[in-house]
Amino acid sequence: MSAPARRPAGQDATRSNPLVVCEAVSRDYGAGTARVAAVREVSCAVGPATRIALTGRSGSGKSTLLHLMAGLDTPTAGTINWPGLGGVPRGRPGSVGFIFQGPSLLPELTAVQNIVLPRLLGGHSLGHAAISAAEALRRLGIEDLSDALPDQLSSGQAQRVAIARALASRPRLILADEPTGRLDAATGARVITALLDVADEIDAGLLVATHDPAVAVRLAESWQMNDGRLAVTTRGPGLTERS
After folding, report:
1. 65 — phi, psi (to 5°)?
2. Residue 227 reports pLDDT greater than 80
3. For the chain: N or C, fewer Cβ within 10 A?
4. What DSSP line would sit under 8-60, residue for residue?
5. What SS3 class is residue 137?
6. Average pLDDT of 66-95?
């Protein structure tokens, strides 16, 4: 959204206390003839009540925008603020739950240990961390995999453990990068149900980058990335079905 007069995407739902606000944010990689504009002058906001599907072709800038919102990357131009999170999420465990597109588990730790470790780093007791890890595994239907190492898991199982890890911290903002891309349709539907249920339960903002129309239709709002720009913002039906 490059026109200064245009209202940022998501503003209606986040006027009171937005979790993250992007203002004319751009992110370039490389220089000279090798320069790539991954995100171009994007303005948007995500609040506690928002349920957003971020769609667009591969390479359109979806992943880069999510990394910027999570504080995992910094913009080349523009500003990002996290008023509802109390500041930059780096070093604030539990404020943002990020679900990466690719493998992200520590290979030497079991599934449950991968989930418990971030909770311990965030200052929680071992007992509290273990309870939240067990609940997250149950939500994703993989409690029987708690003692498995990552190399003993299928790619789909490993992705569900990574999702359980993100949900166990009960984050204020959930950012998911193609969370169902490695899953079959039935398991993918269960994952989206878990994301929606947890977001509702803890009043978290939820932004899901996806290629899958079956995922996008289950979120109340749809944004579209096109060549690095947030080109289209439409409000969907706000479906609340659970499968």
Report:
1. -60, -40
2. yes
3. C
4. PBTTTT-SSS-SEEEEEEEEEES-GGG-EEEEEEEEEEE-TT-EEEEE--TTS
5. helix
6. 88
How far is 223 from 157, CA to CA, in rounded Å? 28
How far, in Å, CA of 240 to CA of 242, rounded?
Answer: 6
For 92, the token pair is 């604030």
d(CA 110, CA 157): 12
Strand partners, 51: 206
C-alpha dihedral sign at 87, 93, 95, 98: positive
Query: CA torsion, points 100, 103, 108, 111, in degrees to nearest 10?
Result: 70
Give helix then strand counts, H and E, for the chain: 6, 9
Per-residue pLDDT tens for 160-195?
Answer: 899 899 989 889 999 999 999 888 888 889 889 988
- Buried b vs exposed e over 51-75: b needs ≥16 C-beta within 10 Å? bbbbbbeeebbbbbbbbbbbbebeb
Cβ–Cβ under 8 Å, residues 130 and 143: no
| First CA to last CA distance, the chain | 34
